[in-house]
């Protein structure tokens, strides 16, 4: 008991070092107080551990003291479930089934229970309910020091959860008899979550405890602190405070500081009165000994005026808090899921968080901003857009420590498998002068997160070009092209060649080198609609003469059905390409080349149109411009979007890019956008427990953030102007909806 109680005290002292223990708890905490504690930089990570004693599994091992029976035989169902989570550690349902199975058949084997909980909570540290279950298992076997250890890991893993702090405080009340130990834990809790709109259960438990202790001055101070904050049930707290003030003497309610202030005020009042009555009366009063009793009487007074003044001070705080509550109540009521879950949030709730953050940021209270972001990032932990917004908000306010903290948590824990956050990290590091860090972020994308992501290749090469490393920029393309050459029917390869050729010309203005890249591409790729589209566009930006005689047979081979050659383009794609080529010739060709292309188009595609479709065309349509006709034809036929499992967005990229050019074909409709604090010391703690499982030096064993497939929209290469990628509405596919406004600028 004494050892575990000391652990609670140590946990408090360590936390107090990070939350500025000399700051009065009724005041706003400083910047560092608003994160999950600080410690030595770069905590080590634990090695991978197994579902059994011999098999490799990409989860983090428990601490050395927890492995006494870890090698116990697994049931067939356990083996099956372990194999699932080894293959994909983000399979939430498999994890919960594994926990249930382990608890069912190994209830008395605490080592196996520790092992599965450590592995699960390394992947999902925000699941406060499982931290509570883990602690209950430790309590069941009587390991109180282990219970405290689990709770300490929990409050560092999900620091801004009212529920986990409440569970920890209830455990302390039921375990320890020392009021100072219990109060210190309550104080830690309210520093982090005492201003949370939903913090009433924690405050209620604190009030209940002090009421049992009959420490009325502490109880009155708790009510005073509550009334400063716009939290739920504020009316109830104010009424309860008034009832307390009316039933207890003020001498019991005032703190020592308040009593001393009253005594000083009483002395000053008596002094003034004595001076006005004359020295004789003053001497008589002192001789009779009436001065001291008068002061004591004032200190313990229940005079109605004094009581009214005492309550009035708190009522002013209450009124101010209620005014602010009226401004945020709409946002709070729209939060349907304030806790973490792997299921995606609906679009309305995601938008509500953005609107709420907008309001709090406009209010200008930095501490409220940080606290709300931390609340948001419990519910929205799987959404890169909120992490990006948090980092930018902290950076713009000059709090780079908080910005770096948030970026570290995002890239190493919560959205570590989503390319968007790593692209953002690379851009931010470049802006901050950390070129090595930016290159590391791109390398992680190329090797682990999303190999072959065209957007990452383009942005990496562009960064090297900005830095003056033209050869390195070319090398980025060449390395990825070399990898893609080794794949069968790579969809990305033609797009890489086309972009590499275009990049070469725009950087070096060497048309021959650019054409040489395209010629090489034809030896390695099967021409497709998107590749030919890119090639046609490329010719539009090159200086004259245009190589029409070179383009024409390539276009003809693709748009003409030919059983002797492999042609994967659909009839719609072939017709679209023919129209694009005709428009190109209208700008740069002669009358003979235009006639040849139009005759070929009529022969290949017009006979296949139904008579009813032709009859629908009105007379005024025939009188419209050729450009309008072309647009109508293009819009009436939805372009096909062949999608690859490996590169789901690659085929659509060139179409979108070239459509943005003047005098080019109309742009196809874009696919709808889909959609806590990191404590370095905590990383050291979890070296033994795997609570986070951060990347080792080689970025091994990356994990997916959710057990459901990611939305594919992010990987699409943006239009020619390279706008910023729209934030994902959810980490899984959502119903089509307008995406939230991006909170960061273009990467270019």
Automatic annotation (TrEMBL):
Residues 33-72, 262-302, 657-679 are annotated as: Disordered. Residues 44-57 have a biased composition (Polar residues). Residues 276-285 have a biased composition (Basic and acidic residues). GO terms for biological process: mRNA 5'-splice site recognition. It is found in: Nucleus. Gene3D superfamilies: Tetratricopeptide repeat domain. The keyword Cell cycle does not apply. It comes from the Eukaryota. Keywords: mRNA processing, mRNA splicing, Nucleus, Repeat. Residues 262-272, 659-679 have a biased composition (Low complexity). The keyword Repeat applies. GO terms for cellular component: commitment complex; U1 snRNP; U2-type prespliceosome. InterPro entries: HAT, HAT_PRP39_C, TPR-like_helical_dom_sf. Belongs to the PRP39 family. This is Suppressor of forked domain-containing protein. It comes from Brassica campestris. The lineage of its organism: Eukaryota, Viridiplantae, Streptophyta, Embryophyta, Tracheophyta.
């Amino acid at each position: 008991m004494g050892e575990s109680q000391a652990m609670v005290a140590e946990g408090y002292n360590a936390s107090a070092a990070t939350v500025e223990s000399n700051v009065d708890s009724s005041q706003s905490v400083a910047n560092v107080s608003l994160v999950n504690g600080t410690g030595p930089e770069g905590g080590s990570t634990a090695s991978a551990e197994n579902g059994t004693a011999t098999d490799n599994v990409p989860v983090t091992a428990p601490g050395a003291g927890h492995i006494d029976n870890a090698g116990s035989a697994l049931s067939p169902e356990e083996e099956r479930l372990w194999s699932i989570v080894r293959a994909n550690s983000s399979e939430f349902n498999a994890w919960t089934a594994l926990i249930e199975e382990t608890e069912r058949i190994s209830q008395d084997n605490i080592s196996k229970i520790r092992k599965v909980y450590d592995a699960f909570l390394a992947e999902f540290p925000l699941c406060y309910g499982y931290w509570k279950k883990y602690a209950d298992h430790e309590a069941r076997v009587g390991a109180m020091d282990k219970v405290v250890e689990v709770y300490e890991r929990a409050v560092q893993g999900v620091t801004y959860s009212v529920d986990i702090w409440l569970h920890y405080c209830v455990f302390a009340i039921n375990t320890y008899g020392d009021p100072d130990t219990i109060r210190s834990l309550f104080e830690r809790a309210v520093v982090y979550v005492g201003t949370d709109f939903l913090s009433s259960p924690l405050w209620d438990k604190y009030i209940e405890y002090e009421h049992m202790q009959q420490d009325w001055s502490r109880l009155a101070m708790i009510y005073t602190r509550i009334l400063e904050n716009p939290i739920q049930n504020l009316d109830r707290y104010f009424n309860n405070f008034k009832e307390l003030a009316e039933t207890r003497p003020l001498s019991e309610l005032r703190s020592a500081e308040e009593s001393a202030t009253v005594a000083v005020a009483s002395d000053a009042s008596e002094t003034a009165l004595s001076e006005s009555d004359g020295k004789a009366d003053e001497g008589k009063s002192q001789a009779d000994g009436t001065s001291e009793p008068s002061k004591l009487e004032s200190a313990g007074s229940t005079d109605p005026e004094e009581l009214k003044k005492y309550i009035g001070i708190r009522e002013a705080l209450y009124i101010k808090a209620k005014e602010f509550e009226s401004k945020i109540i709409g946002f709070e009521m729209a939060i349907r899921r304030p806790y973490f879950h792997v299921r995606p949030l609906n679009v309305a709730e995601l938008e509500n968080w953005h609107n709420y953050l907008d309001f709090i940021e406009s209010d200008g209270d930095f501490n409220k901003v940080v606290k709300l972001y931390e609340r948001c990032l419990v519910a929205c932990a799987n959404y890169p857009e909120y992490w990006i917004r948090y980092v930018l908000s902290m950076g713009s306010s000059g709090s780079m420590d908080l910005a770096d903290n948030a970026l570290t948590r995002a890239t190493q824990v919560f959205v570590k498998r989503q390319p968007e956050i790593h692209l953002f990290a690379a851009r931010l590091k470049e802006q901050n002068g950390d070129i090595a860090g930016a290159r590391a972020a791109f390398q992680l994308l190329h090797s682990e997160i999303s190999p072959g992501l065209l957007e990452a290749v383009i942005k990496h090469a562009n960064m090297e070009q900005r830095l003056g490393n033209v050869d390195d920029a070319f090398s980025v393309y060449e390395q990825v092209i070399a990898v893609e050459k080794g794949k069968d029917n790579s969809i990305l390869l033609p797009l890489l060649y086309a972009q590499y050729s275009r990049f070469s010309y725009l950087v070096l203005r060497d048309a021959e080198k650019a054409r040489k890249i395209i010629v090489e591409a034809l030896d390695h790729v099967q021409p497709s609609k998107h590749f030919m589209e890119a090639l046609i566009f490329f010719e539009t930006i090159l200086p004259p003469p245009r190589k029409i005689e070179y383009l024409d047979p390539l276009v003809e081979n693709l748009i003409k059905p030919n059983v002797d050659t492999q042609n994967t383009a659909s009839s719609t794609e072939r017709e679209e390409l023919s129209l694009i080529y005709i428009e190109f010739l209208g700008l740069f060709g002669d009358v003979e080349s235009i006639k040849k292309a139009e005759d070929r188009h009529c022969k290949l595609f017009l006979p296949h149109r139904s008579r009813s479709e032709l009859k629908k065309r009105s007379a005024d349509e025939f009188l419209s411009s050729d450009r309008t006709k072309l647009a109508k034809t293009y819009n009436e036929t939805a372009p096909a979007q062949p999608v690859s499992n490996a590169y789901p967005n690659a085929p659509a990229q060139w179409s979108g890019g070239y459509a943005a050019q003047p005098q080019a074909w109309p742009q196809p409709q874009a696919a709808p956008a889909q959609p806590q604090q990191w404590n370095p010391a905590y990383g050291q703690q979890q070296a033994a427990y795997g609570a986070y499982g951060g990347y080792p030096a080689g970025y091994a064993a990356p994990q997916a953030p959710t057990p459901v497939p990611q939305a594919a929209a992010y990987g699409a290469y943006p239009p020619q102007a390279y706008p910023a990628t729209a934030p994902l509405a959810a980490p899984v596919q959502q119903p089509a909806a307008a995406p939230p406004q991006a909170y960061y600028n273009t990467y270019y």
